[in-house]
Protein: TIGR00270 family protein
Organism: Methanothermococcus okinawensis
Amino acid sequence: MQCELCGREVEKLLPVKVEGVEMLVCSNCAKYGVTPKTYSRKPKLGKKSIPRGSRGRRVYRPKRDVFDSLKTIVEDYGEIIREGRIKRGMSIEELARRVGIRVSTLHKIESGQLEPEEKYIRRLEKELNISLYEEGGEGHDSQGTGGTS
């Protein structure tokens, strides 16, 4: 018989697993692989195993609609921001510095040319104590007065 690894003719071949492939090899080439006695398909359990049923099962929850939790910004967000800023007696430069955006960007947001990113919406809401998101989606009018209601 012929060794599948080196090609040498031998009388006795040994079954060995070399890099994931089972081969019949001579005794010299057997050192490059693992014999069937040392590897097995099922892992041996050294410790007491946890019963399969008590292991953390996946809890399947019904999928939520993405659009139910999607917040939408009010249409007149620029006016609300400007009114809130004026009520607090802040200049556009001061509010831009406190929120961490450029004055030109805040000016575009106030004029309605640019919709603010979510992180800036949160900062503006906190700084001016206003709400820029619409409440729900079915017939609710937005608070959007810029005051503390």
Notes: The helical segments are 77-87, 92-99, 103-111, 118-128.
